[in-house]
Design goal:
membrane, 2 strands, elongated
Length: 186
Amino acid sequence: MSATSIHITALDGIVNVNSLFTLAVFIGLAWNPTDPNNSLVDPIQHPGCTPGPKVAENLITFHVYSFSCFLFSSLVALGLKQVVRLVRGGAHHHHNHEDRVLWPAFDLAHINRTALRVGYVVSAAGSVCGSVFLMLALVNVVQIKLGMLGCAGGSRHGYGAVVPLFILVPSGLLIYVCTVFYAFTR
């Protein structure tokens, strides 16, 4: 597999993953957190566990931040992908049926590897930030559905949902960052 196709495949992967996360963000934004039927918390049994409007505001805010980060990351990756494809194409000339040169194709010269690496890191950073904001939005979803995490009545189910989230997502992000760092240094 050539270096160019590896770059294209890596950039496609970033865009595909960001697209899935962006879909999750849109689904989250379509959900109405202020609908009282969406909560599993009984305000009579657990009066201190009902989330306030600030939790719903944070939910929307983190979704918007997450969407912005994923969109930024995808646009950077798509831009890099186009540059790699244009450079890979090389200088060609377009001919008509009489084999006369109509116009030369534009060539962007050689790929600046430093700029390409910085672009990868910027795109990866956008994906990481988007993932962190999506995780924070999910914490707010848990609090809306299962009750505030620090309430007196206790939200065992809330902690049961949040603890794996705080273990698995950062673990996955650490692996992703290490892989990007490894690719960056090669």
